[in-house]
Specification:
The protein contains 20 helices and five strands. By secondary structure, it is mostly helical. Pfam families: SecY (PF00344).
Length: 447
């Protein structure tokens, strides 16, 4: 406890760090206040009663901090920006123009960010129209007025752009990645109510207090397991040749390339989830297939077929996303230009093949563990844990929480160490996701 108070005192003594943390808290407070501002003319209580709490809508509502179900001006949150970032990153692989921009350094990144913003506006307008037609359909008196749709689309689009601006301001003037912190705050906002509901259900119904304590212990173990996956690295030794410039010697030291066991982060789960909603979509648009046993099984969140296919897709997408974010050829070229080499491995193509082989080997256990984490909420739900509380046992929300918290703590620790204070831990250093090597010029998704 004394160590904790000493660390907090050291953080408060550093003016720059104190200002950044204060700015971050103020920006996040603005976001949370805005999430309770309802669209003009909408009866949010009536709409929330009509909405489903599970599936994709429940996940989107969690990311938006409850704004989605409240019909808030921030109902769409930052998800359109996330979608635009993913699309632009994939265009960098398929379209030569975007691939060229990724190699142009700072100017290229600025152009890519500009394209991402334009695409965010387009996606937000489309999602806003879909949100109004589907979520506010119960308000027939409003849906009959075309001006309501126009104004609501404008307000929702402006709300998403404002949230995106808040995220950029947090990144520039605060601590941590702004977009990631906004998503994390939205997820954490759902935890107290989920925790309280689960406690009441267990203490007043089946299971009792002992079952609730077992659930909490299981949740802690899952969080620890997730931290191991997020921080797990395979270090490759790199030796740099000695260079003498004037009377100074450069190089001649051994360093390490940290390759992440889970270099793809949460993206494989997001891609897999998008595909797993296809069966339910087919049933919705083709009523004749609504009784198809295969589609019903694949649409059931707790079925074996759904979770096995979900896990297989996560493993495949982990390999795919790792291949497009980690470039062994580029790493080999950069190493060669700087006079570095892996002991016992020839520079050039041999080094690239060696790095690619190591990545392939560590990606397999990383993808399997990621798939296990992704299906834990379904397992928890099948044994009686409420659907809302079960989401915190794994999946997208838990990986985002762990990753963002580690990244933010790593930045705080960096500020402390730069000013010769002790870090946040007595031994070792906090490792976030920033150590993941990626192809130069790529724009990683905010989460």
């Amino acid at each position: 406890m004394k160590k904790l108070f000493t660390t907090l005192s050291n953080i408060w003594k550093i003016e720059d760090l104190r200002v950044r943390i204060t700015n971050t808290l103020l920006f996040l407070l603005i976001y949370r206040i805005g999430s309770f501002v309802i669209l003009p003319g909408v009866d949010s209580a009536r709409i929330a009663a009509e909405q489903a709490n599970g599936g994709l809508l429940g996940l989107l509502n969690m990311f938006a901090g409850g704004s989605f179900s409240r019909s808030s001006i921030f109902a769409l949150g930052v998800m359109p920006y996330i979608s635009a970032s993913i699309v632009v990153q994939l265009l960098g692989i398929a379209v030569p123009y975007f691939a060229k921009l990724q190699k142009e350094g700072e100017s290229g990144r600025n152009k890519i960010n500009q394209w991402t913003r334009y695409l965010t506006i387009a996606i937000t307008i489309l999602q806003a129209i879909g949100y109004i037609k589907s979520q506010i359909a119960v308000e027939s008196r409003l849906m009959a007025d075309p001006m309501f749709t126009i104004i609501s689309v404008f307000v929702l689009t402006a709300g998403t752009l404002f949230v995106m601006w808040l995220g950029e301001k947090i990144t520039d003037k605060g601590i941590g990645n702004g977009i990631s912190l906004i998503i994390m705050v939205g997820i954490i906002a759902q935890l107290p109510s989920a925790f309280g509901n689960e406690f009441r259900e267990r203490t007043t119904g089946a299971g009792g207090l002992i079952t609730f304590i077992i659930e909490i212990v299981a949740l802690i173990l899952v969080v620890m397991f997730t931290i191991l996956i997020v921080q797990g690295t395979r270090k490759i030794a790199v030796q740099y040749a000695k260079r003498i410039v004037g009377n100074k010697q450069y190089g001649g030291v051994r360093q390490y390339i940290p390759l992440k066991v889970n270099a793809a982060g949460v993206m494989p789960i997001i891609f897999a989830q998008a595909l797993m909603f296809i069966p339910a979509t087919i049933q919705q648009f083709v009523p004749s297939l609504s009784t198809n046993s295969v589609l019903i099984s694949l649409s059931n969140y707790n079925s074996w077929s759904h979770n096995i296919l979900f896990a297989v897709l996560i493993i495949l997408f982990t390999y795919f996303y790792t291949a497009i974010t980690v470039n062994p050829n580029q790493m080999s070229d950069d190493m060669k230009k700087n006079g570095g080499f892996i002991p016992g491995v020839k520079p050039g193509k041999t080094t690239a093949d060696y790095i690619d082989d190591v990545i392939s080997k560590i990606t397999l256990p990383g993808s399997v563990f990621l798939a296990i984490i992704a299906i834990i909420p379904a397992i928890a739900g099948s044994i009686g844990v409420s659907s809302v509380f079960a989401r915190f046992f794994g999946g997208t929300s838990l990986i985002i929480l762990v990753g963002v918290v580690l990244d933010t703590l790593q930045q705080i620790e960096s500020h402390l160490l730069m000013r010769h204070y002790d870090g946040l831990m007595k031994t070792g250093r906090i490792k976030g996701r920033s150590a993941v090597p990626a192809a130069p010029g790529t724009v990683p998704p905010a989460i």
